[in-house]
Write a structure and sequence with these properties.
Three copies of one chain form a homotrimer.
Chain A lengths: L7 E4 L9 E5 L2 E7 L5 E5 L13 E3 L2 E3 L6 E2 L5 E3 L13 E7 L2 E5 L15 H4 L4 E9 L3 H9 L4 H4 L7 H5 L3 E5 L2 E11 L3 H9 L8 E10 L3 E10 L12 E14 L2 E10 L6 H31 L12 H20 L1
């Protein structure tokens, strides 16, 4: 249950090296590669000749060649040539609209002609030289909506991530959720608390004392179909919290794209964007390593939750105030899916 | 096809340490733990909030805490508390009746209110200080009734356990099977034969000559739903066999509980109880090691038999005299299942 | 979708050592062994007593004994004896016709009474002392017809086997396909080309210069239900090609039997027969090793193609001139399957 008339992150540029990349997205087997001009292309991963996966083939001057019998596929899904064959009447394969922006390759899994690159959500941090980004990719066996729930309700940090970013005060702070302009925002502010280990590390990285009370904030923003950006940070207590001047703050943006692979599995692109020391690659690497460990802690819980839900399909889950972020996000998704169903 | 209004061995006390234990029994996902008083508890392994498995959580002063969002579950299946929430209206989860006795945790997989601890079968050896016990647990992919068949027809020892307890004379001795007082007993007596390797070892452990003829016996007793106790032993020939005075005997009780996990898999608790040298822990360990090796020999046969039966569901198996133990055991089980179906 | 009234290669003699061999062929679980006279036998892999797989048993003087309870099975599928039992009324299990010939054990998966050993296709190289043979066995997850397609269209060599036997000129040479006398023959002749690495090696093994132009040929012959023999070779250019005298030639016969295990998996017996240096065992071993590596390159492609076809069952594959070998082979198979359906 996912909308298909929309953009999803398909892969990162480093995954498109000199070989085609096979990746299933929204139940569609796709092959990704770069053409002669370096432009990303996505096609159905199915050779029209005998059904071989084109992703097992190779690239010749930016042209995709089937690794079975040498059929050369065009970037438009029409066969370009094949040794000893006239190819005009060969059936076409599906072409998917792709666009490279903000350091990701985006794909539109339904009709390519409807794809509008203006619909790719704007990512300020990705274009601003004052920001740096580092991230990774996990393959997780769960419905993408379980990951959205997870990210839109950070009380789980207290339990799943107890040794890094969790702390009791998250549970105790009230949470506010609203849907505005087609996005869901859920926020939590915790004043005058001690920073947990991850934030102590971040304070030190900002040359700030790590053993004094801080004001902490979490502002989660869901943008359909599958993006959650979370502004997180701490500031030395009493300097304005989220509004504090930069010299008192350590903050960053958690970046999450959960692209459905199937109904119960995702490609989870996670990362962190920050606007301090943007050129410090060692810091980027160290943050990525730390975040990677923290985010791996969710995997077992989500996969086991998924299995439990498959086992009891008739059970209705609870919708508490802390779940409002996930609930409102699903409402936007349901609307998109309904609109697509009506349209086509 | 198993009765559910009855007691099954769920786990052993050493499996309930400081963490919850997730275990599926009779197709029910359960979580086991000890409460603040050390009493064993079993609940459905499903958090009423978002369906996470409670067995991924932790224990806080004997209370089960969900590892996802910190819901605290009561031993009665009612949510006790959750940070920042009123929990009175939370849906309950299933509570299962459990009871610790004889060195095992027993569970009643259906309605807890019907559970009667007086129905746990009496195990003399477990309470008598003249006896010692050692055992283990195997997870086997077969219907629990295939294991009952296996244990109620020991002619397989000659073939499956040829190098330890098997010997030709088992096949040659007549077998007697009867159903008495809701139990099935099948027995075999082999007089004046040479002891096979396992019994030579047991004779030596009893300070008896191991190279002289013995009288050997096997008395298998099935108690529904899934318990087989086997009195096994040898005595120097001519001293009365099964009735021989202790100074001529080496004997013990093979202990088997095969708890259904699903229709085609079991938790197989196996062990051996003995009434000689009960305080000799090294002997207990050595017997357990030997028995563990022997009982592992059955696993492949049972799993492959199960796959063959799934492949040919319409075939009727033979019911020979040697199969009478299994056949009569299944009759008792069918009756229990039928009674349950009528009742509920 | 495979015919069953016909011979398939089941195993090689070295697989029938002192233990029974369990192998599924055409969806039938079978057990193979040699009787007291050394004659190969095939039976259903199902003990009539309790359904244990007989292949887990053992051989006693050429008699198959069930490893569970010692039932002794006759080579005719009738139980011969069982300890303490009268076996006359035991149900029979299926016996399959088997015949050992040409260095293979052949099996007829349907009614044994219809099996006619004269229908085993003649293999000249297997009986002629001027020839040597070496080969191996791969287990591949694909429909046997995908492997037939593969072998009847060698243009894939250029892509799948680019570093050994592939070369651009294969694609460029016209292919001729015809069905004659119940066989399909597809042939390709490439004159005055440079030999690829594998054939350079073969030329050297024949004490011929490996750096001069050659005439190369490939003559693929499909014999139903699942045999493809390919005459392959090169001769120094200008000496008559396929007809060239032996002193200018390096040639051999690629041997392929793809026995269906299930609808989407095969036992693939591959090998090479040659009529030069037939007694040079080191050469046989070295050819087998090289061929094994080359043929392993097809596995991933075929398995991934199979998965793609299962995903899109409604898609029709193309039938180009290069596919004529596979297309005509499937036509013969369809006819056989239809004839069987009408008969039975």
């Amino acid at each position: 249950m996912f909308p298909k008339n929309c953009w999803y992150v398909a892969c990162t540029p480093d995954e498109l090296d000199n070989k085609p990349l096979g990746r299933r997205i929204c139940n569609e087997p796709m092959v990704f590669y770069r053409d002669a001009e370096g432009k990303a292309v996505a096609l159905e991963d199915f050779c029209p000749h005998r059904g071989a996966p084109l992703s097992l083939g190779y690239l010749e001057d930016g042209q995709l060649v089937c690794g079975y019998h040498g059929l050369k596929m065009g970037a438009d899904g029409k066969t370009d040539s094949m040794p000893g064959q006239r190819v005009q009447s060969f059936p076409c394969i599906k072409r998917f609209a792709v666009h490279e922006r903000y350091g990701f390759i985006w794909v539109w899994p339904s009709d390519a002609d409807q794809a509008d690159i203006n619909l790719i959500p704007h990512l300020e941090w990705a274009e601003n030289p004052d920001w740096a980004y580092g991230g990774g990719l996990y393959h997780i066996q769960c419905d993408y909506r379980l990951m959205i729930d997870n990210l839109m309700d950070l009380t789980h940090e207290t339990y799943v991530h107890a040794t890094s970013i969790g702390q009791k005060e998250i549970d105790e702070a009230p949470v506010h959720t609203k849907t505005v302009d087609g996005e869901v925002v859920t926020s939590r502010f915790m004043d005058n608390i001690m920073p947990p280990p991850f934030w102590q590390m971040a304070l030190r990285a900002n040359d700030l004392a790590d053993d004094v009370p801080v004001d902490r904030w979490q502002i989660c923003r869901f943008t359909p179909p599958s993006q959650v950006m979370i502004e997180v940070g701490v500031a030395h207590a009493g300097h304005g919290g989220y509004e504090a001047p930069a010299q008192y703050r350590a903050n960053s943006t958690v970046v999450d794209f959960m692209t459905p692979e199937t109904d119960t599995s995702i490609w989870y692109f996670w990362g962190m964007a920050r606007d301090f020391k943007p050129h410090d690659q060692a810091l980027t690497d160290s943050i990525r390593e730390g975040q990677g460990k923290i985010f791996a802690e969710d995997q077992d819980m989500l996969e086991r939750q998924q299995r439990n839900l498959l086992e009891y399909p008739e059970r209705r889950l609870m919708k508490l105030n802390i779940d409002a972020g996930g609930v409102q996000s699903r409402r936007l998704l349901d609307k998109m899916i309904e609109t697509e169903a009506e349209a086509g």
